[in-house]
Write a structure and sequence with these properties.
Layout (H helix, E strand, L loop, with lengths): L1 H47 L4 E2 L2 E2 L6 E7 L9 E9 L5 E6 L5 E2 L2 H4 E4 L8 E9 L3 E13 L2 E13 L14
Antiparallel strand pairs: 1-3, 2-10, 3-4, 4-8, 5-7, 5-9, 6-8, 9-10
């Protein structure tokens, strides 16, 4: 009789433990899947932006976006340089604008000065590029203004792209671009 009670008590405790383990195990599995998906998105964004450097934000903007960049060639004074950009928003945005801030250290074609951005997905890096002509050698900073709009309104931020500009080769013609 005593062993029968012990057996019944053991079965009851096992069933009770199994009942409490089910939902918790499911929520743990769900949380693990969510964490793995978030890691996969971060890895995908990191792979999309391999070789790019994060641009520092200027001021206290509220824009929830990382900007990474890399010049395609070494910048030289008087020669056009294309700069690859990767915009990585933390939230989706319906529209946006990218504007190169007017600076005497860079000559920028009127068509390159400002551009509209498409809707940005918060999980994907948006790639684009700008073409500028550095006017003087040395460490120059190209500033970009970004504005993103969503259902809650618009936010702005300014980013600095530090570039080391080399001197033009002797005898090389200086190129010009419309301002």
């Amino acid at each position: 009789m005593r062993s029968l009670r012990s057996l019944a008590l053991g079965v009851a405790v096992t069933m009770l433990a199994a009942c409490h383990r089910g939902p918790q195990a499911q929520s743990v599995a769900r949380a693990t899947r969510s964490a793995e998906q978030a890691k996969a998105r971060r890895r995908a964004a990191a792979n999309d932006t391999a070789g790019l450097v994060e641009a520092p934000r200027i001021g206290k903007g509220t824009l929830a976006l990382k900007l990474k960049f890399a010049p395609e060639t070494r910048p030289v004074a008087g020669a056009p340089v294309a700069i690859d950009l990767a915009l990585i928003p933390t939230n989706s945005a319906n529209t946006g604008t990218l504007t190169i801030v007017d600076d005497p250290a860079f000559s920028v074609a009127a068509a390159e000065r400002s551009r509209a951005l498409p809707a940005l997905d918060g999980r994907v890096a948006y790639r684009t590029r700008v073409i500028v002509i550095p006017t003087a050698p040395g460490v120059q900073t190209l500033d970009l203004d970004l504005t993103l709009s969503d259902a809650l309104g618009s936010t702005q931020g300014r980013y600095a792209l530090p570039l080391i500009v080399g001197a033009a080769a002797a005898g090389a013609p200086a190129s010009t671009a419309g301002r």
